[in-house]
UniProtKB/TrEMBL annotation:
<feature type="transmembrane region" description="Helical">
    <location>
        <begin position="12"/>
        <end position="36"/>
    </location>
</feature>
<dbReference type="InterPro" id="IPR000515">
    <property type="entry name" value="MetI-like"/>
</dbReference>
<feature type="transmembrane region" description="Helical">
    <location>
        <begin position="260"/>
        <end position="277"/>
    </location>
</feature>
<keyword id="KW-0812">Transmembrane</keyword>
<feature type="transmembrane region" description="Helical">
    <location>
        <begin position="79"/>
        <end position="98"/>
    </location>
</feature>
<feature type="domain" description="ABC transmembrane type-1">
    <location>
        <begin position="75"/>
        <end position="276"/>
    </location>
</feature>
<comment type="similarity">
    <text>Belongs to the binding-protein-dependent transport system permease family.</text>
</comment>
<dbReference type="Pfam" id="PF00528">
    <property type="entry name" value="BPD_transp_1"/>
</dbReference>
<feature type="transmembrane region" description="Helical">
    <location>
        <begin position="110"/>
        <end position="129"/>
    </location>
</feature>
<keyword id="KW-0472">Membrane</keyword>
<keyword id="KW-0813">Transport</keyword>
<feature type="transmembrane region" description="Helical">
    <location>
        <begin position="183"/>
        <end position="208"/>
    </location>
</feature>
<dbReference type="InterPro" id="IPR035906">
    <property type="entry name" value="MetI-like_sf"/>
</dbReference>
<keyword id="KW-1133">Transmembrane helix</keyword>
<protein>
    <submittedName>
        <fullName>L-arabinose transport system permease protein AraQ</fullName>
    </submittedName>
</protein>
<keyword id="KW-1003">Cell membrane</keyword>
């Protein structure tokens, strides 16, 4: 008969629980405050006051934001950049990583060395700006997509993941006459679902939250991304710079509720997507990081 001995909780464990609980509260509280403000009706709204729940609920701020052409344009821009950029990121990252796993690739070690070198040393902001300008991509969505088709860290992790796949299956497919492209599509990609899910989330969040490059490369306010628009609403304390009517009056909700609603609309899509990918996300990252 075997007995399972449970480790007794020590004082250190309880201190950890308390600290983690406090950190969780500090992370959740600002989000909760913004949510409450965004749902508060203008008739009961008191500026810069905290309430656990709105005295009167209202979706007026959300309706106002979603009826704005500026917000709709920013949403369309962000969705296009996220969808197109994520697909191209996955395509280039996984195809290049698969190529680097093939020993038949000429100068494979040299290419992989250059990838590792770029992980340590980067060109910087000014060369990147000059490159985009010389390519004629200024004020174009492609300025946010093409320069970031892949990155060294993603390539290294995905290559490590593919190296851990059973080579016997790949060799059997090649013996049966399957081409390299067929092996990649029919074998590598199905076996790489955890890594695909993990990096889909990585790339999607990166594109959805793009801000600095959007400010640097997009000069037309009609092409702004959501993050740039939200920054104009929150930090400028007015939506005029974003092309929206933000004056407080009978025709519009209080500016504070409008800003809170815009923040929620910019955050919620990623929060809804993550739970569906969480299992594959954790598995993909762990396999790609540990085995290599």
């Amino acid at each position: 008969m075997s007995f399972v001995h449970r480790k007794k909780s020590t004082a250190f464990d309880y201190v950890n629980y308390v600290l983690l609980a406090l950190i969780s509260v500090c992370c959740i509280f600002p989000f909760f405050y913004v949510l409450v403000v965004s749902l508060t009706d203008r008739s009961v709204y008191v500026p810069y006051s905290f309430q656990w729940f709105p005295k009167k609920w209202s979706l007026e701020a959300y309706s106002y934001i979603l009826s704005s052409n500026s917000f709709i344009n920013a949403l369309k821009s962000t969705v296009f950049i996220t969808c197109c950029g994520t697909v191209l990121n996955l395509l280039f990252t996984f195809t290049m990583a698969y190529g680097l796993t093939e020993k038949r690739l000429p100068h494979r070690k040299l290419i992989y060395g250059l990838v590792v070198f770029s992980l340590v040393f980067s060109a910087g902001i000014i060369p990147s700006f000059l490159l985009v300008k010389q390519l004629g991509l200024m004020n174009s969505y492609w300025a946010l997509i093409l320069p970031a088709l892949t990155n060294a860290w993603s390539l290294i992790v995905v290559k490590s993941f593919m190296d851990s796949l059973p080579h016997e299956v790949i060799e059997s497919a090649k013996i049966d006459g399957c081409t390299d492209l067929g092996v990649f599509i029919r074998i590598i990609l199905p076996l790489s679902k955890p890594a695909l899910a993990a990096f889909l989330l990585f790339f999607a969040v990166s594109h959805w939250n793009t801000y600095f490059n959007a400010v640097m490369f997009l000069t037309d306010s009609k092409k702004w991304t959501l993050q740039v628009l939200v920054k104009s609403l929150v930090l400028d304390n007015s939506a005029k710079t974003a092309g929206m009517e933000a004056s407080i009056g009978d025709s519009s909700p209080p500016s504070e509720t409008v800003r809170s609603a815009s923040i929620m609309l910019a955050v919620l899509p990623i929060l809804f997507i993550y739970p569906f990918l969480q299992k594959h996300f954790a598995k993909g990252v762990m396999i790609g990081s540990v085995k290599g």
